[in-house]
Every structure is written in structure tokens, then in C-alpha cells.
Amino acid sequence: MVGTIGEPGVYRTLAISPDGKRVAVERTDPRTQNKDIWLLDAVSGATTRFTSDPAWDAFPTWSPDGSRIVFTSNRSGVYDLYRKSSSGVGAEELLYQSSEGKGPNSWSPNGKFLIYYSLGQPTHLRLLAVDGPADRKPVPLVDPQFSSVTGRFSPDGRWIAYSSNESGKNEISVRPFDAAGLAGNPVIVTSGGGRTPLWRGDGKELFYITADGTATAVDVSAGATFQTGAPKPLFKVPAGLLFWDVSPNSSGDGARFLMPVPGS
Fold first, then answer.
1. Beta strand 80-85 with 187-188: parallel, antiparallel or unpaired?
2. Distance (Å) of CA 220 to CA 35, 81, 202, 223, 249
3. CA distance 238 to 241
4. Are the C-beta atoms of residues 162 and 143 closer than 8 Å to each other?
5. Using CA atoms, how far apart are residues 256 and 115, in angstroms rounded to an integer?
6. What is the pTM of this model?
7. For residue range 99-123, what is the model confidence (pLDDT) as tens digits?
8. Among 97, 111, 128, 264, which is most exposed with the fewest C-beta within 10 angstroms?
């Protein structure tokens, strides 16, 4: 079943809340061309402005309890990380500042870590402690000699899925992750190319987009080792699609995806 949410507009980065009831989305104002974050009610489609700074605000990322949203903004000249209560009440707080532009990807289920990637080319995944001194240093998740992007914590926090070319071509890989913030060696999931991985809500399936633009699923068995089943093509995504998300309440064959698509 295909449906829409919210009113027509220019949307880009987006994220579904942990309870599946709201969507945080980057939207371009048709009058000013300013890019801000808005919140959409997943049932009614009602929209509420979340940021209004004249800078570019993007990459909304929910905290695991849904109480806060981290996003990137170039209001200080560099794309730094800010956070704000998801209620919309209160000030926007600078979370992390550095000389490198940053786009947040995922917040760990235990609330302690963020994955972001460096903006620009090539891109590199970093692991950042949510709390700490202003000059705390991020940790590379993938050797910086390779390009890596779109890192996602598994629902149980024990694995990180991401896209990289560390195998020689752009594939989906996963790495084990422990509570101390250490990532292990990669396990390559795809063999014919893949990008923008998502976890099913129960962690038993990975979704990704193939090189030819097909949304694909693989069953996951993640115990002492990480194993996957055969790829299952689902549907073609719109040409040039970069950002999508899956409902956290999805299980079995009931996965529900959200993505910006051209109007008809």
C-alpha cells in the first residue's frame, strides 16, 4: 500500500520517531528557500515547525526515548551538531563543534553514542560520545583511507550497519559494537553493491538499496556471529533517492517505509 504524509513540499533528510508517531523532516520554505526541520504527525499529517534559524538545518536524528532531536546546522559557518527537546520547547543547544562538517546518522539505544559522517568527499563515519567536554574527540568507525557513510545502530545496540568501499567497492557491512563504545571487525553483507542500510524494528532484517535502485531485504541472525539470508527484492525506489527510513514498529512482512518522492 502506498500513501503520503504531510502536505506537498521540498523534503530531503528525514527520520521516524522511536514510537513511530512522528516524523522529523528537513523541508525547504518555498518563499525564502530556507531549509528547516519540521515535525509531522504520522497519523494526521499535521506539521509543526521545529527550527527557524536562517541557516541550513538538516539530518534530524531522534534520541532513543524520543525526547530529543539532534541535527546539523551551519549557523556558525561549519555544520555542527545541535540538540533540542522534541516537544519544541526550549533553546537549541550546541552539542558538538569542530572544524569538520557533520551529518548525524544514528543515536545508540543506550543513549551514550552518536554516529555521524563527515560532510564532503570522501565521507567518513565517526563515533561521538553524546556527553563530555566540548573538545572531546570522535573515534573513526572505519579506517579513514576508505569512504564510509550512513551508519545505523541495530535496535539492540550490538551492531552497526553502514555503507563503505573498504572491500574494494561500495557495499553494506556490519560491525559488532559493545557498551564501552568499541566496534569490531567488519562483516560484509552485500556482494553486488548496496547503500543506505536500515534495520527492521526487531533487528531481524536489514534493508538497503542496491546499485540498480532496488529496495532489498535480508534476514538477519545476529548471535555470536552475524549471518544473513538470501537478498529479497522489494520494490524500485525513485531515481536519485538518498534518504529514507522504516517504521520502528515494522516486523515480519509489514515493513512501512518513508521517503521523499517527486509529485505526480
1. unpaired
2. 37, 32, 10, 10, 17
3. 6
4. no
5. 24
6. 0.94
7. 999 999 999 999 999 999 999 889 9
8. 264
